[in-house]
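Worked example 4.2. Below are the chains of a multi-component assembly; read each line carefully before continuing.
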Amino acid sequence: MKQMLKGKVIALLSLAFLLIMAGCAEENVASGEKGESSQDDVIKMGLLLAETGPASTLGASQVKTVKLLQKQLDEAGPINGKTIKLIQYDYETDDTKAVVAMDKLLSEGVVAINAATQSSTTTAVMPKAIEAKIPFLAGAPIDVENEYVYSTVHSPRVIAMPIVDYLNKQGIKKVAWLNAADGFGVTGLPAFKELAKENGIEIVAHEEFDATATDMTIQLTKVRSKDPEAIIVWSRTPGAGIIARNFKALGFDIPMIQSTAAANEGFLEQVKDDNENIFVVGSKLSVLDQLPDSEQKELLKEFKEAYEQEFGEEPDLFAAHVVDGVYAFVEAVKAGNTTAEEIHQYLANDLGAFLGVTGTYNFSESRISPEPDGISVLAIENNTWKYIE
Amino acid sequence: MEKVEAILYGSRWKGFLGFIALICLLPFFISSQYIFTLFILIGIYCIVTIGLSLLIGYAGQISIGHAAFFGIGAYVSGVLTAKHDMSPWLAMGIGMIATFLIAYMIGMQVLKLKGHILALATIAINIIVYILLVGLSDITGGASGLIGIPNLSLFGLELGNQLHYYFLVWAFVFLVILFSTNIIRSNVGRVLRSIHDSEIGTETLGVNVTKYKIAIFALSAMYASLAGSLYAHYINFIAPPTFNVSFSILLLVMVMVGGVHSIWGAMIGTAAIMFLNEVIRFVGHTVFNISGEVEIVVYGLIIVVVMIFMPKGLIGVLDIRGKFAIKSAAKKNVASEKGV
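Applying the procedure described above to all two chains together yields the following structure tokens:
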């Protein structure tokens, strides 16, 4: 009896194995065939986003944006007879899974890549795109410059610019710096140091905290003894929100300014009802109604309304990065480019100044960052963002 | 003498031949870059899980900290090659020796503990190493990771090519299996198994149990270090979160599902979990339209099911030799030693 059962289990297992192998093989064939036919009608762009895991507070709106954009592209119909397909994989905030997913994308014959939600993951998958000579639209700030890499996000220096402007306006000369000890957190200080030096701002204290820590009271207490006039925080959520709450609990009466990584709904939720003196470098997208009229406002409004209609919530800066990456790609396709090399050449040489939701891009001049015209230091009022001049 | 060995353990060459044939034939059937990456990662993880199988299945100790040794190997290789331009092969060797020594010293203290407490202590080791990797940012690159790790090359042959790397990794796996089966089939292997069954009993026979436990712990750590180096040179980028406790747990799941008492089981478990992971993601996304870490739920379910219905793991079910075991009770006991 036992042996019969064993035989059955073996049969089942081998059947499962065969199915898996068949599945893989089929995928090969499929991708091979599609690879050929895609030259006729389908152009694929690959995206890697953190739909789940710790970075999902940032990735969630990006994934929604991909769905929205795909819908819009489908409704608009083929461009020059080509259908654009956005293939998005969730890398679960795990670098190894991202690399596996990246290979999957390359196997499926994508001609451009937009990745990823976090800096470290972006750095991890980028070499594969460079090796395959595929234009890589970096979705998080990275330190690497390469012919095939285009950044859709602000460099730390560009993010720090509005902060320094704000400090100058307020006449603040002594600041304390706190950052999370993760891929994003450590990028801010070198850029800010340079800008601070140019503007005569002194960094009187520097503390680091673990990105997954649940209390930063110690770091804030240490900083307080140095008597700063403002505190600058460089951290993703949820750490960004926790430190803001600690900051309020300790009764500071100076401003706290946070980076773009805190410019999302998750952060607003975390600091709900106790958010005076907390400022965030956020997208103008969040304060659209308060902006003066401009071409940029129209563009932002169009995206924001479509997003709100689809999902019943507001898009954030992270969604904006994805929009711009995809739009730049769509522009390239509209101009009649279909292969990776053609799209790369177009982005590098012919696209020129390109107004995106994140800000104005000009890849022929700077691959590292869009201009700071899309972001601004925002205050929080009645639990929503408030634009300050 | 050889005949006795054959009776005790069965022939291992059949398994080896099947293994080599499978590894050599697979590239004829796969062309997708994605599947190749999966097989390379499976090979790399197999090296760790084989070490874990020796430690858990044979010596009866547990470790939920092997991601730390994997990380040490990866970082020694990464730092020495990316920042000091050392030969990758030399760096890999240094990594393995360093990890062996570190694990030996840790093992001397930690392996005095038993059961759950040992498990907790190994988790602690993993956490300490993780914090060091993040904190020593001048050396390790800290949280933003270490970039610029070169590809391997062998006698002028560039191993950045996936097919080449596939064969390299599996050649290492083969060497590790060969070395491990030699240990298992030697007197050391028999001592380890007797430690597994009764530590006190073994000690009363005059065996220095601690020495064997520490040695096998350090050896399995060295395997993990080798795997870590291979990982670093394949991905070309490493960051601390890869070497967190969750990875240690994943490794443990692989060994448990495959069958902890056999190194072939460890390998089957590794492959099964890796494919399962991809299948769950694919099916979850496309068929049920659910996203997220569904596989965690499924992992839990699988472990429970495996523990209840297949306490010997997948290998226990797949072991065909067990089916043809001669029915006499005396020989059945011998047969249970097979499958190594």
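Take a moment to check your reading of the output against the notes. Chain A has two domains: 42-155+304-372, 156-289+375-387. DSSP finds twelve helices and 14 strands in chain A.
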